[in-house]
Amino acid sequence: MRPTEITEILNRPLSQELLARDLCRLAYVAKDGTPRSIPIAFTWNGSEIVMCTTKNAPKLPALRANPMVALTVDTEVHPPKILLVRGRAELDVVDGIPEEYLRMNGSYEMTPEQRVEWEAEVRSLYDGMVRIVVTPTWAKLIDFETTLPSAVEELVHQRAVRRASAKTSAAR
After folding, report:
1. Which has the minimum average pLDDT: 49-53, 80-84, 106-110?
2. Percent of the chain with pLDDT strictly greater than 90
3. Rounded CA gap, 87 and 81, in Å?
4. Which string of DSSP letters, residue by residue, matches 10-57?
5. What is the CA radius of gyration of the chain?
6. How buried is residue 163: exposed, middle or buried, by Cβ count under 10 Å (0-12/13-18/19+)?
7. d(CA 51, CA 98)
8. For the chain, percent helix, then strand, then coil, each to nearest 5?
């Protein structure tokens, strides 16, 4: 997929709405060769998806061995709105708490007092974190109104061909 195509998809209003959400699902291949899909907080900085994790997270050795990942951001309504992204995870070990981590957890419902307590707890727990940075290399937006999963698009096309063929046969 060309970078301009990815940018066009990610700049759509619905994509921007999904990229403003708190959680995505990160899919990767674990060290034992089995697939994993985990919920993880994220933020979009305009060109990259950034997630943060502990320095001892089990996913880190797996991502170092195979950095190719897939991400899903979706809604819980019908029809669902789904943003699918693929890319390569770059790992950035940082001292302290990355600003992205504090921002990506900012929309949970907390009182100002709870927020102060939460941030103090986070700062006392972590001496550093790992930023998982994914630059999209592929993207697809599915809204079930203007865009569909590719397999469903194929079925719609096949149905149209069948119907056109049936009309041609009936006209003879």
Report:
1. 106-110
2. 69
3. 20
4. HTSHHHHHHHTSSEEEEEEE-TTS-EEEEEEE-EE-SS-EEEEE-TT-
5. 20
6. exposed
7. 10
8. 35, 35, 30
Q: Which two tokens stand for residue 68?
A: 């190719």
CA-to-CA distance for 151 and 92, rounded, in angstroms? 36
Count CB-CB contacts under 10 A for residue 90.
Answer: 14
Residue type at 76?
E
How does residue 150 score in pLDDT terms, banded at 50, 70 and 90? Answer: confident
DSSP three-state, residue 146? coil
Instruction: Tell the residue number behind the tokens 């001292």, with chain if given.
Output: 95
pLDDT of 50 reads 97
Which one-letter amino acid corresponds to residue 70?
Answer: A
Q: Extract the tokens encoding 167.
A: 């009309």
In this prediction the pTM is 0.85
List the one residue out of 81, 72, 82 whose CA is nearest residue 134: 72
